[in-house]
Specification:
single chain, mainly alpha, two-stranded parallel sheet, globular, PAP2/HPO_sf
């Protein structure tokens, strides 16, 4: 069922992009797109920290140093070098990657604050929604587990989440889609912040824990990600000594599925790069399915993630004024710079 839903979401995203593009008019320049993305990242910090302080969640600020030393400083040095040498494609790629990493802190803070709001667990409601759709979660997972090759493919697809997030902007730059690279990172940020807001009312331990299915009951599916986040999830909800740490951070949101949303965003972003269009469509269709089998998401989590991603795509299309053929103009501008 998830396959058709995912595939149907792509023409919907394309339609929304066309509508927003027509309303927006001429395409946005690379320089303006850069300003918009960095302003968005700055706004994310301005909003996230007051939320955490108001909630009273403890934060290990020392853990942020890892990101600063390992990513921010080297990326900043690379950006300065690219600016000095007038290597615009390199600059765009590094800036997009840097902004993606910088968003990790406010996204992490907001996701933990959402779960830490301590609303009642929503697993029973999510289970009932799946049943209302005619979806039997246990049967579906059992069918996948009985097919070792399929289970392995989905495992690799699930773990492509982070590499895709940071390689997709690079592929877009190589494809001459500079503004789209910035827009893709912004879409990811919008998806995550929307998911954080929604998750305040839908905290959930996930299907593996809710159905009490341990790894012992499965032969080919690695259930690690279906259980690993629970220590952090339970800690932020019930441990008075808990402190948010960037080095310990995990994805603790269940509804909507950020994994499924990112699958849609990456497939949409690379649809404009013809050579990568169909390979990444297949990869991200697999990643959307793996959110259920390897991430322990309910079907409704995935559907909701797809819907939120579609809205995020529509918003960035309008804000960044994306248009067909824009890549050729951007490439020419980057070469001239």
């Amino acid at each position: 069922m998830i396959g058709p839903v995912f595939l149907l979401s792509l023409p919907v995203c394309a339609f929304m992009e066309t509508v927003c593009r027509d309303a927006a008019g001429a395409g946005m320049s690379i320089a303006r797109a850069r300003i918009v993305l960095f302003a968005f990242v700055g706004l994310a910090y301005v909003v996230a920290f007051p939320i955490v302080w108001l909630q009273g969640m403890a934060v290990d600020y020392g853990s942020f140093g890892v990101l600063l030393k390992a990513i921010v400083l080297p990326a900043a040095a690379g950006i300065l070098y690219a600016m000095f040498r007038r290597m615009e494609p390199m600059r765009v790629a590094l800036e997009a990657i840097l902004c993606g990493f910088l968003l990790m802190i406010p996204i992490g803070l907001c996701s933990y604050a959402a779960v830490g709001a301590n609303f009642p667990l929503a697993d029973d409601a999510l289970t009932q929604m799946d049943k209302a759709l005619g979806f039997d979660w246990r049967t579906f997972v059992g069918l996948v587990d009985a097919r070792p090759v399929f289970a392995t493919v989905l495992e690799y697809a699930y773990q492509s989440f982070t590499p895709q997030l940071f390689l997709t902007p690079v592929f877009l730059v190589f494809g001459g889609k500079h503004v789209r690279a910035y827009a893709m990172v912004a879409a990811y940020g919008l998806l995550c912040f929307a998911a954080c807001l929604i998750s305040v009312w839908f905290p959930a331990i996930g299907a593996y824990a809710a159905y009490d299915m341990s790894a012992l009951g499965l032969n080919n599916i690695d259930t690690y990600f279906g259980f690993a986040f629970l220590e952090q999830f339970n800690g932020v909800r019930g441990d008075p000594s808990f402190a948010f740490s960037l080095t310990e951070m995990m994805g603790i949101l269940t509804f909507p599925s950020v994994h499924a949303g990112v699958a849609v965003i990456c497939a949409w972003a690379l649809w404009e790069v013809r050579r990568l269009r169909y390979p990444f469509l297949v990869l991200n269709l697999s990643m959307g399915i793996s959110a259920i089998t390897h991430g322990g998401h309910y079907l409704v989590d995935v559907i909701a993630g797809i819907g939120v991603a579609a809205v995020a795509i529509a918003l960035v299309t309008a804000v960044f004024r994306l248009s067909p053929g824009q890549g050729a103009n951007e490439a020419a501008a980057a070469t001239a710079a």
